[in-house]
Amino acid sequence: MALFLASKKRQYFSIAALAFSSLFLQACSSDAKEASNKTQVEITDNSGSHTVIQKPENLVVLDTRTLDALTLFDYPVAGAPQTSAAYPTYMAGYLDQDHFNAGSFFEPDYERINQAQPELIIAGGRSADAIPELNKIAQTVDLSIPFGDTVPALDRQMTALGKILGQEAKAATLLTDFHQRMNDVEKQGEKAGTALVVMINGGRLSAYGAGSRFGFIYDELGFKPAVDLENKGKHGNPMSFELILKTNPDWLFVFSRDQAIGTEGAQTAQQVMNNPLIQETKAQANDHVIYLDAGAMYVAGGYNAYMQLMDQVESALKKDA
Question: What is the pLDDT of residues 60-96, one digit of tens each?
Fold first, then answer.
């Protein structure tokens, strides 16, 4: 009798297990069928061509340049980095409760991202090294804007976003506006003389030249570099007040990394540049020291950041005319 009951229990267990397996496989099959039925589009990112789901659910974005651009599209982002770094005002929405914290700019929260079950992840830039691991969670593409390749990369990014989000016409209009503004400012910048882009970090100065991380002012807006700087890397070239006076640029474009990353107790860019040697420069004498939005330039660095930069430069040039 005991053997009979044990046999019956095993039989019932086997039937239950088969039923559960059948339901699980049906669910997986249903999910796979649903995914396969979704429209797919071909895009180009920084590594080549990819076929991705259009209008992906639970979109996770780690690249700040892409997050910058996405503020212009009516499309929900599920997760984004939430850190102490200063997002510019137009990106402050990523810090609210409608978005989960996807980690830092450099180190994604893989567990939280996996829980969100994204259909697409957009990474790159500071999070580029994490892409292989992110690809294990969901398809991951790199729509960042590499240093020295600003305009081609921005065109590629906006075109890809238009396809992914199903908003190609809007992306095309935004790019037309961008290139028109860039051409207009360049015509004025070509006549404006020399410039030097300076970043302040912990009271120290770094300068950036043509073809560098912040070379847009020279490369696309027509300003002539006040000095030929060899280092094109992300940290720029060490600079001093004496060297700035020696190069004596017509324009100084200044921003503070300390402000961008939220360094407590740091001096403002204006405080650091309040130096007797800077007072002797042509830029200071002609009111040509332009303080840039650190959050936009250093943290964001996307479409809006460059449009804001061009607005600021154009306003200064018109004031000087």
Answer: 999 999 999 999 998 999 999 998 788 999 999 999 9
Q: Does residue 235 share a domain with residue 112? A: no
Residue count (the chain): 321
The count of structural domains within the chain is 2
**Separation CA 223–CA 190 (nearest Å):** 6
What is the CATH number for 81?
A: 3.40.50.1980
C-alpha–C-alpha distance, residues 54 and 70, integer Å: 15
Q: pTM for the whole thing? A: 0.86
Range of the structural domain that residue 126 is part of: 40-167
**Cβ partners under 8 Å of residue 299, min gap 6:** 64, 85, 86, 87, 88, 260, 261
Buried b (16+ CB within 10 A) or exposed e, 269-295: beebbeeeebeebbbbeeebbbbbbbb
Tokens representing residue 269 in the block:
């860019």
